[in-house]
Amino acid sequence: MAKILKGVYAALTTPFVEGEVSRDKFRENIEKFNQTGLSGYVVLGSTGEAPFLDDQESEALVLEARKSAARGKVIIAGTARESAGWTIKFTNRLAEAGAEAALIRPPSYYKAKMNYEALRDFYLRVADGVKIPVILYNIPQNTQIQLPLELVVELAGHQNIIGLKESGGNIAFLGEVIKKVPADFFYFTGSGSVFYSALELGASGAILALANVAPELCVKLFEQFRAGQKDEASELQYQLIPLNRAVTETYSLAAVKYALDRRGFQGGPCRSPLLSLDEKAKKTIDSLLRELKIIS
User: Fold this and answer.
1) Which of 2, 88, 190, 293 is 20 to 30 Å from 144 at the Cα level?
2) 184 lies in a domain?
């Protein structure tokens, strides 16, 4: 891939109106995010409720993201399906729609059978068959599959597998990967709570749900670190942890969307079966946003 993937990427949410995807609201969010220092956007990730979207909706969102994103912003799409063949077809469809790289989690329906050999075969088949570069996606809290370190290192040798998003919050795992993979392999943390630590280990950047809610602060942390202002970056990291935990661990996607609403973006409801926040949770999110001066 010609582009260097570094910096902060927002794992975008998917706005719904009466249960249907709203391209207009999605576009409005991207146009606002274009004014920040985000390096790009991940469409159809976990934060985007990808499992609840059909192929046509997914394609429409990638088309809209490519159309609305400012020049230079990288579009990454979550393209994983449960078979290698289906993943290849879907990835190539989204490549035609404008995705520049594919973020691919391991297939997990038959998780008991997803041993080293099965996962290796899946990723190699996909990497050989798709038109855009592949970023491995380790998210064991959702898939109940931990990509083996040795497998990630082996797959990093494939010319079309260019990076890893580590969303398990496992800094030791990320550190071991960074030590053993080629220098041109991109590695991202998916946890806003360990962003600073990941950068210290050599991470390329982050793909974050938190970057929807606090894009300016996430970018500020990255830029402070790169400028050698590590004390300031470390302090900002500590300040961001409570909000990140609330919107990713405690309350999850509904909290991200509520926080977007409070910021004047388009959040809205999640798709069923995910529920909206109760009033107590909303007050907690409001308090955390005020502490960081994100809202007044």
Assistant:
1) 88
2) yes
Domain boundaries, position 177: 7-232
Task: Report the predicted TM-score, pTM, of the whole model to 2 decimal places.
Answer: 0.97
Active site residue 113: no
Say which CATH number the domain at 18 has. 3.20.20.70
Letter string b/e over residues 41-69, b meaning 16 or more CB atoms within 10 A of that residue's CB: bbbbbbbbbbeebeeeebbbbbbbbbebb
Cβ–Cβ < 8 Å for 26, 265: no
Please report whether residue 138 resides in a domain.
yes
Mean pLDDT per 10-residue section of the chain, whose length is 296 residues: 83 98 99 98 98 98 99 98 99 99 98 98 99 98 96 97 94 89 93 97 97 99 99 99 97 98 98 97 99 97
- Active-site residue among 25, 73, 165, 257? 165
Residue the block writes with tokens 């297939």: 107
Classify residue 222: in a domain, yes or no: yes
